[in-house]
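hey m, so remember when u said the tokens were messed up on ur end? i reran from scratch. heres the input so u can diff it against urs
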Amino acid sequence: MAAGRELSLLRKYSIIYFGNDWKAENRTSSHHVASRIARHLPLLYVDCPGLRPPALAARDLRRALRKIAETARGPRPILPRMWHCTLPQIPLRRHPAFNALNQRLARLLLLRWLRRLGWTRLISWFVVPHPGFLAGQLGEDYVVYYCTDDYSALPGVDRTAVARMDEDLTRRADQVFAVSAPLVVLKRALNPSTAYAPHGVDFELFAAASDPATEPAAEAARLPHPVIGYFGVVNARLDLDLLACLARSRPRWTFLLVGRIAPEAVGLQQLPNIRLPGPQPYESLPRWAKVFDVAILPYLRDRQGLTANPLKLREYLATGKPVVSVPTPEVESLRHCVRIASAPEEFLAQIEDALERDSPADRQARQAAVAGASWEARVAETLALVEQGLARKLGADLAVKGSKL
């Protein structure tokens, strides 16, 4: 659907968008969706404090200082029709008094910033649940919750508190989107206005990995093959034991894990055939994937893993590289072009099969499976549903007002 021709009502609105850190090392669906919405509507991207309490690590302290400076500046343009700001946070937010102060300050600042931008007709769009206390508090006509994870199952969070925030926002939203089939089931039980919104992919960017003209990343060009590759954060969401087992079982293979290394994963550095180059610019990822012989999704099969829809699944398929993954509902939906393995022995066997038997036809089939799933198409679909829901809500409101005259 061509969003530009269909969004006659939404054209009158601006979006206040609550997402994760805009400057995070890895690009998430929050970034992709926001930047595509801004091609159609004015959007204020609001960085929200993390779900996890801040630690005293140097990285968290640097991030906190940056957030304080950004809060003081207020909204500033970052893309055409897109502004960025940061919600303030007193770190002691588990204390009721400080939490109440954070919430009051956030609302007052946002109302001031919205007046500065001159926006009066608003839609609030939440990608994370913890700023959900602001839903309906900013004079908006419509509330969207675009849920990308089972947030209470993430490692390191206060599960009871996060589950409560997530459930409350799900119930209060006018429209809920969920990125995986299991999440749709969970959300629809709380809010019947829940729709499936799978991730998109920047197909042209990642398809460059199969273009002979694309040069591999210099740091990876001379790695010994076969190269078994992964890009994304290396943290407790991965099956770190599985990764270590694979590396020990095949010492002549190179395991290239591109992304930020969380403290719980630093033990992987001790294995000589695991290479950890750290976080890399998003636009450079196809140059790293260029050297992959096989791409892997070694997630834990816990509650969070089973409800997730890994963004990199479609990115891997767009590269054309063979993919081996643990089984999850979203991976199963693409099993015709993904090799699936549960145990370490199966994982090794599937990687070896991909190394021995993969063909150009297989590569084309993988790319064809995601070629039409662009972020532009995904965002057009979600905006069309928001347009319809907003029209129904405004019509119902007018009918109620008319009946009272």
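this time it looks ok to me. The first helix runs from residue 3 to 6. if urs says something different then somethings off w ur setup not the seq
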